[in-house]
Design goal:
This protein is mainly β. The protein is built from 1 helix and 23 strands. The strands form 7 sheets. A 4-stranded antiparallel β-sheet has the order 3-8-5-6, with no helix packed on it. It has a 4-stranded mixed β-sheet with strand order 10-15-14-13, with no helix packed on it.
């Protein structure tokens, strides 16, 4: 008895001929065949047996006289005996689409934490390629400066996506930048015993407080300075389910401290 598993990808790598089935296993009276396909096969049917299609890589259309079934990687379909059909493997010439998670431009305080949010990618043939996205670049949060992180992905046919760039600027705490973004000055509460990464974005719509959670539970951000006519409660709350609070107020500099 052979105890080795059958690696279909490895079997496929051993030949390059198209529409030339190779028997890789047999069970009872059934043969399992591998075949590389491209373009259109002839219309045909099998009078005495069903025909199963399992796509290992890429995509396959199975055309019928009354419709089409499209299979992507990992999907399977059985054509009943006697049903006329035609397999069609269209050449993949379309590059995958890639989209950044999070902001294209970020500013964080020196000594803060930068957690890259990556990108998502999808190809019309190969499906979800997010795990295949290649990232190049490094953000040194201990050194003030501007950094770039680049993202790109390729599908199995070799089509490359556009290259996306995330720009990250590391600034001194309390520095006011030219585009209206303030890096918050924070006093650490000794009782809290943790220093999360917090920063503030200010624009004509108001103030957005962003936080990267390093612990469990609810955080309270207590305002300790006047915010240009802000009247009302001085406490803001950040729940674990969210990492953003928006406060519709005039632009101003906000100082706060963390209370556990």
């Amino acid at each position: 008895m052979n105890h080795e598993a059958l690696n279909l990808e490895e079997k496929f790598s051993r030949f390059s001929e198209l529409w030339s089935p190779r028997v890789v296993a047999e069970m009872n009276d059934t043969q399992f065949k591998l075949v590389k396909v491209q373009g259109e096969f002839v219309w045909h049917s099998h009078a005495d047996t069903d025909e199963a299609f399992l796509v290992v890589s890429g995509a396959l259309d199975i055309e019928f006289r009354d419709g089409t079934v499209r299979l992507e990687s990992g999907e399977m379909f059985v054509v009943p005996r006697g049903v006329e059909h035609r397999p069609v493997a269209r050449e993949d010439l379309v590059a995958p689409e890639i989209t950044l998670n999070g902001e294209v431009y970020m500013e964080i305080g020196k000594g803060g934490l930068y957690g890259d949010m990556g990108a998502i990618a999808r190809d019309e043939v190969d499906g979800d390629l997010s795990e295949e996205v290649r990232r190049n670049g490094y953000v040194n949060t201990s050194k003030v400066g501007e950094y770039e992180v680049r993202y790109r992905v390729w599908d199995r046919a070799g089509n490359g996506s556009e290259e996306l760039v995330r720009k990250v600027k590391v600034v001194e705490e309390g520095e006011e930048t030219g585009n209206g973004v303030f890096v918050a000055k924070m006093e650490q509460d000794s009782a809290a015993n943790l220093r999360p990464h917090l920063w503030i974005e200010v624009d004509e719509h108001g103030i957005t407080i962003w936080a990267e959670r390093l612990g469990e539970g609810r955080w309270r951000l207590q305002v300790t300075e006047d915010l240009g006519g802000w009247d009302g409660a001085n406490d803001m709350y950040l729940d674990p389910e969210s990492n953003q609070i928006r406060i519709e107020q005039p632009v101003g500099t906000l100082y706060y401290r963390l209370i556990k």
